[in-house]
Design a protein that fits this description.
With about 280 residues, the protein is α/β, with parallel strands linked by helices. The protein folds into 2 domains: about 5-215, 2-enoyl-CoA Hydratase, Chain A, domain 1 (Alpha-Beta Complex), CATH 3.90.226; about 220-265, Orthogonal Bundle (Lyase 2-enoyl-coa Hydratase, Chain  A, domain 2), CATH 1.10.12. The chain is about 45% helix and about 15% strand. It contains 12 helices and 9 strands. The protein has helices at about 40-55, 75-80, 90-100, 105-110, 125-135, 160-170, 170-180, 185-190, 200-215, 220-230, 240-250, 255-265; strands spanning about 15-20, 25-30, 60-65, 115-120, 125, 135-140, 145, 185, 195-200. The strands form 2 sheets. Strands 1-2-3-4-6-9 form a 6-stranded mixed beta sheet, sandwiched between helices. Strands 5-7-8 form a 3-stranded mixed beta sheet. β2 (about 25-30), α1 (about 40-55) and β3 form a beta-alpha-beta unit.
Length: about 280
């Protein structure tokens, strides 16, 4: 049963949730830190919200953006300087802090069964760049800037960036970004495949929500199964992929939505998809 409280947030929540029909808009809500990814409140918000989204078949797509001028500035550099939060202690303690802290975010994304689009409204720096790469699709505003900038502060991508980024832009481009830490403009991000589209700041949210609406026209369970196969393809062999595809296809052929899709095709009308298997 869906935890509806997880999808109801107040103005002080680290992530705001706005339901727009079959699409949910998530807004990182820490503009005072340029939406830095830090603190138990932020980490648990991703887990709680994603878990609730998974359970709600009325939701078919998600858009993630940032409040204010930045998408996400990454980690809290002031806490790094002061050896606070995740950054306190020796090597073993910091490794534990990361696993129990920021690394919960990529794991939450791994467990999210819904398509998710990053609407990158401004700088996506360090862990912010990685956060965008955790999404399935990225659309950027003209003012967006990307950087795998960990080397600039003397650390490595501890949130999984070296796993996500090469899968988005390829090894060589990911290596260039990670080794230099230099900024990548929105237009360059488009050229290297980091984003699918660049639009004006005024058009960004409508563009992302419009794409989400196109996705949301499709059967909810089939969208979830398709995402599972896409995620599995990152690590599995072809025989493993084919086996799971066959299993899910067997289930898909039994759904009411498949029956409705075929009926609509032959009746030359738009299908109306429900929520039942």
């Amino acid at each position: 049963m869906t935890d509806q409280n997880a999808l109801q947030t107040d103005n002080d929540a680290p992530i705001l949730v706005e339901k727009k029909g079959a699409v949910v808009l998530l807004i990182l809500n820490r503009p005072q830190t340029r939406n830095a990814l830090s603190g138990e409140e932020m980490f648990s918000a991703f887990e709680r919200i994603f878990s609730a989204l998974n359970e709600d078949l009325s939701i078919r797509a998600v858009v993630l953006t940032g409040m204010g001028s930045a998408f996400c500035s990454g980690g809290n550099v002031a806490q790094m300087r002061d050896k606070e939060g995740m950054f306190k202690g020796g090597p073993e303690e910091i490794a534990k802090n990361y696993w129990e802290g920021i690394q919960r975010i990529p794991m939450a994304f791994q467990n999210l069964r819904l398509p998710i689009i990053a609407a990158v409204n401004g700088p996506a720096i360090g862990a912010g760049n990685d956060l965008a790469c955790m999404c399935d699709i990225r659309i950027a505003s003209e003012s967006a800037v990307f950087a795998e900038s960990f080397v600039k502060v003397g650390i490595i991508p501890g949130d999984g960036g070296c796993w996500f980024l090469p899968r988005v832009v390829g090894y060589a481009r990911a290596a260039e970004m990670a080794f230099t830490g230099e900024n990548v403009s929105a237009q360059e991000a488009l050229q290297i495949g980091l984003v699918s589209k660049v639009v004006s700041s005024q058009e960004l949210l409508n563009e992302a929500l419009g794409l989400a609406a196109k996705i949301a026209k499709n059967p909810p369970q089939v969208l979830r199964w398709t995402k599972e196969l896409l995620q599995q393809s990152r690590t599995c062999s072809l025989p493993e992929a084919l086996k799971r595809a066959g299993e899910l296809q067997g289930l898909a052929h039994q759904t009411a939505d498949h029956k409705e899709a075929l009926a609509a095709f032959f009746e030359k009308r738009s299908p109306v998809f429900g929520q039942t298997l």
